[in-house]
Amino acid sequence: MVNLTSGQWGTLYNVFSFGLISMLACTVYTLVSQSRVLPKYRNALVLSSMVTFIAAYHYYRIFNSFAESSQDGGVMIGTSQGAFNEAYRYVDWILTVPLLLVEVIAVLALAKAAASSLISRLVPASAAMIALGYPGEIATDNGTKILWGVLSTLPFLYILYVLFVELGKSLERQPEGVAATVGRLRLLLIATWGVYPISYLLPIIQETTAENAASSFVGRQIGYTIADVLAKCVFGLTIYKIAKLKSAAEGMKEDH
Question: pLDDT tens across 197-209, in order?
Answer without folding.
Answer: 888 887 777 655 5
